[in-house]
Amino acid sequence: MVGATQPIAQGSSAARPPRSSTLGLTLAGALAGLVLLAIAIPIVAGLIAYLGFIQSDHIAPGVYVRSLPIGDMTLADANQALTRTYNQELMVVVTDTSDPARAWPAYPAEFGISVDSLATAQTAFAVGRQKGLVAAPLDYYQSASRGRQVDPLTRFDPQTARRGLEAWAPLLYVAPQEGAIAIENGVVVQAPGTPGKALDVDATLALLATNAQIVLDYSVVPLVVQPVAPHTYNVSGATSEVQRHLHTDLTLQAYDPVGDEWRTFSPQPDDILNWLRVQPQGDAVSVQVDEAAIDAYVAGLSSQLGSDRGLDPSRTRTELLSGLNGASLNWVPIRYATRSYTVNPRDTKISIAASIGVPAWKLEEYNPALRTRGPAAGESLTLPPRDSMLALAVVPGKRIIISISQQRMYVYQNGGLIRTEIVSTGIADSPTLPGLFQVKSHYVNAYASRWDLWMPHFLGVYDAVPGFENGIHGLPLLSSGRRLWADVLGRPASFGCIILTLDAAEWLYGWAENGVVVDIQR
DSSP labels for 340-378? Predict the structure, then answer.
């Protein structure tokens, strides 16, 4: 029937699809298979690699502990590497937090800081193993492709840290510089000092306990250092003592037995101030007296007296020290020095000794060579000091003067003449020696065996030779009972002694104690 649809016979060309459409579908399917295969192969390979990793005892690749690569290491190898790197080889810088320029190298273990190597290795070993069936492989792949940082697990031992800090404390310590203590205008003052430094062990322990990880991260051990203030002393007591010294009257009387002269010296406050030293003693300040400074002051006074005399250094120092301590000052002696003498051709020991007013044996004391020979012309001798025969402590205020030329004795007390007596001195063959001597012995009745006579109220004055004493006494009495020289007083008559009337000798014996100066003049 016209217009009706005709069925397509099986196998006719009209019933087949076009060849080009069939080929396209085949190629698309093949391409899709290749893509799936390309995707599947790496996944399978990765799964195979991951399964191998899971079965191994190695850490995932790409794992680091800070800068230390431990990926692909066994747990044991990683433990060793971590121990060596952090607990054996790592050094840190120990620094003073108040002054970073003060820094020293050290090991963290000295301050109780270390890495738990095994625990850290175990943490690294867990990468790719502990996040489940899906996340664990991804963890593994991320570590292998991008790397993975694992923090070291630190340990802090406070007891070890304390011992280490206590050992370091002396190195960190800087002693404070005490302010100088001085006397200014009679007031004791302390200048400002300079603070020191000391390690604060407890504060540093607290800091390390909360920052042990930072020590390893930055290789720095911060030490808390506190300032140490200089000691401040109580100077009020010292000021009072200085003022007491400065207001002490130290007027000093010095006596010259040779010239029968008194000299007065009065140290001024500036002089006294120069003798004083202040120094710490406990929490206060003590005031000390510098004896060397006193000696220097005394030497200055002595220089005012001339080249051949000066104050007795020891006696003068002792008196000034006593005065500073509140005692009354006694007078001090003026001493004389030795002199030099060039021998003339006509000089003898006797003439030289007589010229300076000493016995010959005293000249020999200062010139031992003269004990066996006479002086040689041009030879330089040491002359004894002018006060060399004053062996005893001098009694000031009393003085006996014997005038050989006048045959008189003059007795002075406190500068005034209180008695004049006629005397007889030694004859020419046994003269009385001129010189400065002193009463050195008392005998109520001395016996002279050489002449068999008794000498009443004898005052020994000098040894003409050692063991042979000349002196002052009353008219002598022979063993026969005869009194000698009563009729010749006023003329030389004795064998060297000075002869007085019996009454005058008895009076003088009681008045003149040992030490009174006897000045025998030509």
Answer: EEEPPTT--HHHHHHHHTS-HHHHHHH-GGGGSSPPPTT
